Amino acid sequence: MTGRLVGIHLARFASSSPRIGGLFRGVSTAGSNSIFSKQLKSSPSEVPSSRYMNLPLISLTKSYSSAQTTNAVFAPPSSLGVQTEGASKGHCDAVSDVRLDDGGKQLIMSWEGGQSQTFPYVWLRDNCRCSKCFHPVALARLTMAHDLDVDVTVASADKSPEGDDVIIHWDDGHESQFPSDWLAAYRFVDSQRDQILNPKYKLWGADIDLQSFEFGELLEDDRALHDWLAELVIRGIAVVKNTPSEVGQLHRLGGRVAFLRSCNYGPTFQVKSKVDPSNAAYTSGPLALHTDLAYYIRQPGIQMLHCIEQAECTGGENLFSDGFKVALDLKEVDPEAFRLLTTVQFEFFDVGTDHYGKFHQYSRHPTIELDELKEIASITISDHSRDPMLRVPPDQVQPVYRALSKYCKMLVEPQNLLKYKMEKGDITTFNNRRALHGRSAFQVTKASGRHLEGSYLEWDEVNSRLRVLAAELQSK
Ligand code: OGA
Ligand code: ZN
Ligand code: ZN
User: Fold this and answer.
1) Which ligand 1 atom minimizes the distance to the CA of 439?
2) 472 CB-near residues (< 8 Å, 6+ apart)
3) Whose CA is nearest to atom 6 of ligand 1?
4) 316 CA closest ligand 1 atom index
5) CA-closest residue to ligand 1 atom 7
6) Domain that holds residue 382
7) Are 227 and 170 contained in the same domain?
8) Across all residues in the chain, what is the average pLDDT?
9) Percent of residues, the chain, with pLDDT higher than 90
10) What pLDDT digit, counting tens, does each position of 15-41 carry?
11) Residues 312 and 364 in one domain
12) Which residue, of 137, 186, 236, 329, has the fewest CB within 10 Å?
């Protein structure tokens, strides 16, 4: 959804852009060819960041060896079933020594592999996994921060006879027991970040090796489902093929993940050329590259567009560009433009009437949003719904426009722009916060219309499903 554009006459956009065809190539079926066995096409396309250096997105290697750690109470951090970096660094060796540093109020653990780590007393006590402190079925902390003795002291600490666990006797009589490899995974320095939240991205351009997945397989096969979702994390775009050409298929596909994300346009929306369009997408005009629902504070994570009927004429191609790749290019060629786009917030609006009645959405976002590590986290662009409000000093206005325009021009440079005319039965699926999308104008005739059904998923649901699938596939 690009934003409301009331009163646009269909004829105004009709066939204003020439056919851009035949440029798409490289759709291959994934099948058993899991993404984990694929190499990057070229290394410069990889996000150059230390945080991406460690492991594949999901390792199917079990890292937790001790009997205790198979208990969900001591599940690995963040991603169930995901190998922790500790395992690869030799932290899973038995404990060789446990020492108390009462002055520093911390415990110092040494592993036989030679590593040692410190664990503050207050953290150990807060994370005690005994059944008084942590519900073993609900997997929830039962103690409360306002009751926590932040100066808590330890009477003694020791390794278990096998050296797998650390046992702590607290001065107040409480006792805690921690598996050493669980502690290693939670060590403070250099601990592994969630691999799904912090993936090794593969950046792409017009020559992307676009992956495709079979609709029927996604409904039946968990491995295919896992690989599709992982592709959405890593490259942020994939095509689903051979979907039945009728409305309702996104509910079926979304149901395999969890549930669809709704919006003012309904749980799913019908993209057709309409007489009274409540959105610019509901015309036959071109759509500039954009991210959907920029005017929402919580913008949808993933978009799905199902081609139910394709215009039998020129135009109507979908356009995609990797916003992360181009943002990194911009950072290199024009750091000041990059800085402006990461700091200046544009505001967005959408006003109209649709599925749930009248609406008035309003939100603000920087074009390029950075995370706490200053890595690119998401992109927001929507010419149709960008509000006139620009809260910068007037002398900053021209530089801000110059930066935005430069980024948008780079997004559509031939090497960056993927053009793909969907076939009946295709669902293009993409990270709405990364892969910008648009379309060329098309012509509606009596004999031929164009009909897409669209909907969204949230990253929370996709990430959760990925972690569960990875754990299940690993245990098979
Ligand atoms: C949309 C959209 C693309 C298309 O509905 O938000 O971008 O191909 N549609 O019609
Ligand atoms: Zn859109
Ligand atoms: Zn306890």
Assistant:
1) 8
2) 222
3) 1
4) 8
5) 438
6) 212-466
7) no
8) 84
9) 66
10) 222 222 222 222 333 333 332 222 223
11) yes
12) 137
